[in-house]
Specification:
Mean pLDDT: 92
Oligomer: single chain
CATH architecture of the largest domain: Alpha-Beta Barrel
Number of helices: 10
Strand content: 25-35%
Bound molecules: zinc ion
CATH topology of the largest domain: TIM Barrel
Strand order of the largest sheet: 5-4-3-6-16-17-18
Radius of gyration: 24 Å
Helix content: 25-40%
Length: 412
């Protein structure tokens, strides 16, 4: 350890006490990652034998060769010479602290949230967008993680979903004036995003292709206008064809699920740069539901229709050029398996590189953090992960995360 001795003259109450004393100044703390294979930008060629230099939570330099010294600094070397190193993964649709049923309370939501946050970070997801929680516990969890008291990913949180019709975990609004107030209340409570429940749940028959939108136009307009005033983006839960077409008229940033978006909706999304977060991981759950074959014949047919048509719809949007980001709906599907979205993307026909791009670069763009996250480049926040195997060759290798760094701090 280098020690720097500096001479200081101490003045007390404006009068010199006439002595000089020695003080130790802490040296700079620098971490150097030796990356055997660096996927700095998902979708671009990887580089061999690179050194990533990290200081104060940021990437300050990338050198092509293994270096082990930086002038005047205390060094920590991380040996990832036999690993693939890439930017931290991102999940744009989770519910870390959402509970269901009649006995919901903040304490249980907090405990679940702490556990789910830990699981999420440990598999390499360093940033999540939380699109709906039981109460404001998620904002407290976000703060506790930011303060370093709890281990978890960076959270952008919506808090309660804004909805109509008595949906569980929603804040109700009714009429434009009421929707304006509810949106303001959510933003004042700490929402980074506004999430609206613009169609009914995928687990109900009314979410089918011809299902009716739940809001009136003036209500959605009121919500998006307030959000825009505060510089906050709106994500819309939407299954039926017409609810997607409705919300797209009012400047929303992302369609969640989008199970029955049609060509017209896709064209508008391309034109307006609206993101598609298809939450295809839900197919894992649907597979189980269909296997059990419980419930009414109508509901079975409904689930089968989702299962048969949704992956094709997502592939169609991908081929057309709709921007796609990863979002698992973890909370509906299990937490700690957020990699499933990228695996499902590849299963439905996306290239491995594009699936990894959806989980990094695209997600960073959706949350307006492209300057800070999504790639390993000088100046960006040091959210860095490493794995055994290469997900460009086998996407399942994205499950083999052995190293997680968030903002320059090593968690795994
Ligand atoms: Zn959801």
């Amino acid at each position: 350890m280098y020690k720097f001795i500096i001479m200081t003259v101490v003045f007390l109450c404006g009068a010199s006490i006439g002595g000089a004393q020695e003080q130790e100044q802490e040296p700079r703390k620098v971490t150097i990652i030796h990356a055997g294979t660096l996927m700095a930008v998902a979708g671009e060629d990887t580089l061999a034998e690179q050194s990533i230099i990290i200081e104060d939570g940021k990437i300050t330099d990338i050198q092509s060769s293994y270096i082990s010294e930086v002038d005047d600094a205390e060094m920590t070397i991380v040996d990832l010479r036999d690993k693939v190193v890439m930017a931290g993964l991102m999940d744009m649709h989770v519910h870390l602290a959402m509970l269901w049923g009649s006995n919901k309370n903040s304490a249980d939501a907090a405990l679940k949230g702490v556990s789910n946050a830990y699981k999420t970070l440990m598999i390499g997801f360093t940033t999540v967008r939380d699109l709906g929680a039981t109460d404001d516990t998620i904002f407290k969890l976000r703060k506790a993680i930011n303060d370093g008291d709890i281990i978890g990913p960076r959270i952008l949180a919506a808090g309660n979903i804004i909805g109509v019709g008595g949906r569980e975990n929603c804040k109700e609004c009714n009429g434009a004036e009421s929707c304006r107030k509810t949106t303001r209340d959510m933003i004042n409570a700490g929402a980074d995003w506004i999430k609206i429940y613009s169609s009914c749940s995928g687990s109900k028959l009314c979410s089918n292709e011809d299902g009716s939108p739940m809001f009136f136009d003036d209500e959605i307009k009121a919500i998006t206008e307030v959000a825009k005033k505060y510089g906050i983006k709106v994500a819309a839960h939407s299954h039926p064809r017409d609810s997607a077409l409705q919300v797209l008229k009012y400047g929303i940033a992302s369609i969640e699920h989008g199970s029955f978006i049609n060509d017209e909706a896709m064209d508008i999304m391309i034109r307006d740069g609206v993101y598609y977060v298809p939450t295809v991981s839900v197919m894992d759950m649907l597979e189980e539901v269909l296997e059990k074959a419980e419930g009414s014949a109508d509901m079975l047919a409904h689930n089968q229709n989702f299962y048969d048509n949704n992956p094709g719809k997502i592939f169609e949007a991908y081929q057309k050029g709709v921007k796609i980001a990863t979002g698992t709906d973890a909370g509906v599907v299990p937490h700690g398996k957020n990699y499933r979205e990228m695996e499902r993307f590849v299963e439905l026909g996306m290239t491995n590189a594009d699936a990894l791009k959806a989980g990094t670069i695209n997600s960073a763009e959706l949350i307006d953090m492209s300057d800070e996250l999504g790639t390993i480049e000088v100046g960006k926040i040091a959210d860095i992960i490493a794995m055994v195997g290469n997900p460009l060759e086998d996407i399942k290798d994205i499950e083999n995360i052995v190293f997680v760094m968030k903002e320059g701090k090593v968690y795994k």
